[in-house]
Amino acid sequence: MIRIREIDHLVLRVVDLERMLRFYCDVLGCSVERRQEALGLVQLRAGRSLLDLVPVTGKLGQAGGAAPGREGRNLDHFCLRVEPFDEVAIRRQLQPHGVEAGPLESRYGAEGAGPSLYVTDPEGNVVELKGPADEVWERGMPDNPIQSPKVLAFDVFGTVVDWHGSIAREVDAMKLGVSGDEFASAWRDGYRPAMRRVMAGELGWTLIDDLHRMILDELLVRFHVTGLDEAAKKRLNKVWHRLDPWPDSAPGLARLKSRFMICTLSNGNIGLLADMAKHGRLPWDCILSAEVFRAYKPDPATYLGVAKVFDVAPAEVMLVAAHHDDLAGARACGLRTAYIERPLEFGAGQPKDVSPQPENELHAESLLALADLLGC
């Protein structure tokens, strides 16, 4: 819930600056606090608040259209001081109402320069939502937590790429006499048991590529698939390197990358993830995987490893995933979490429950929707 503490400042567009200064200072007792001649802005102290005077002939004033009167606006915008100021929470509250906030910027207000978002009301009035002065905000005091993550770490299989559909299509195209849908599901079903063998020490450290091949060899026997030579088996196993992204993934990542460091945090190995990125044009800043940390999710070494790589606090990393168990593991390590709806991850015949869970900080129907929530 956005809690308004007070009006921080009003911005008046003026025709005769000197006359307005005399009125507000000499008549009403305001005092000049700050002048920004290059912008065409004079800021007056009015008790705990500010009154900004913007000449219509100045740089800021010219952007507002005609001079005050019947056809021109007198009020440029007004500012509400919000406490606590949590950018992500504010955007999350605005989204269901179809209200989009502008980019987060530091702007000067009654308490000094601090974080600020612009929104527009239904009749076109601009409202500024403002947080505390920068020195308070940036310290991340208990009542003003770190506002935005610095790093977005993405689960990949199912969250960014459509593993089921990609594998089913390739298996069907090979005409092996089996259902691509069933084969894809069975291949994925063998994933967790194989990982557990590694985590339990039954197998030494093993790349996902090699685990996939172990599972594939078992499936070929179970599904009575014969006639594949070694080269064909290797190519089929590499289908995991050629998984197609969901339609929103590449454009969503591009928008998120414009503001955040974006990386993978996947149990896939580095070569697999690099091939997949090339195939799907996924614009990662960095590829991190279980191979880097020699541990599979949900081992804490993976989640905390991201923070260590980027030299940030765990709370400055947000895991983005379509799997609640993965997100729970991240939260246990102090990371922030965002859930992405992928109802068709297991195919149209097995729709997945994508209901929101309150433990997640953000819930979005796609990566494009996540970019909207995070102001990208």
Task: Describe the protein.
About 3% of the residues have low confidence. The chain has 15 helices and 14 strands. Helix 14 links the parallel strand 12 and strand 13. The protein is elongated, with a radius of gyration of 27 Å. Strands 2-3-4-1-5-8-7-6 form an eight-stranded mixed beta sheet. Strands 11-10-9-12-13-14 form a six-stranded parallel beta sheet, with helices on both faces. The protein is α/β, with parallel strands linked by helices and 376 residues long. The chain folds into two domains: 134 residues, 2,3-Dihydroxybiphenyl 1,2-Dioxygenase, domain 1; 228 residues, Rossmann fold (3-Layer(aba) Sandwich). The relative contact order is 0.11. Helix 10 packs parallel to helix 15.
